[in-house]
Amino acid sequence: MSWTGLCPEASWEARLRDFRAAGIGLPQVEGWQGFWDRFAFAPGTSLTYADSNAWAAHLWPSDLGAQAPAWDAVHLYDAHHAAGYRTNHACFDAWKESGDGIRCENWMLAHAWAGSDLHVHFPPWRESLARPPESPLVPVTMTIDDGTPPPVAFDPVFVCRSGAWVPPWADEAFS
Questions:
Q1: What kind and span of H or E run contains 74?
Q2: DSSP β-ladder status, 117-122 and 141-144
Q3: Cβ atoms of residues 71 and 61 within 8 Å
Q4: CB-side exposure of 151: number of CA atoms within 13 Å?
Q5: Which of 52, 57, 54, 109 is nearest to 85 (CA)?
Q6: Residue 106, number of CB atoms within 10 A of its CB
Q7: Rounded distance, CA 45 to CA 64, Å?
Q8: pLDDT tens for each residue of 129-156
């Protein structure tokens, strides 16, 4: 395995050299302006962030002092549904029996297992749910995010920076 396979930020060094050698402008974080303005947050909402969505599988109501065993609903705003892919497992039961555990592509399965309703809101550039066709291992309500305020107040909020997808030169925009 190469070093870049172990450290997402190291892969950006090679990408940076390739962009510069090709005379291509560096990719930036775009489209986030105003994103948070439409959301309602419950009083005392906590914010957690990490470098992998996989950590969201480990965030439970009991971590915040609540008695509920699971979240009523989990909403994901992302380009990937993160509810398991049939290229890895034929079905939810096969994933449970495999012992493969939680990763960024399947972290929502932990919340499905606990009984949470799952919702994925794909970015507007996705344009269609038909391409690529989505086939998660568990039921997920999927929509294209149209920018309207969702009819729910969120608590807590988990944000993933994901060094594999966000270049380190865009850290200031993330902040």
A1: strand 73-77
A2: parallel
A3: yes
A4: 0
A5: 109
A6: 26
A7: 10
A8: 877 778 899 999 999 999 999 999 998 9
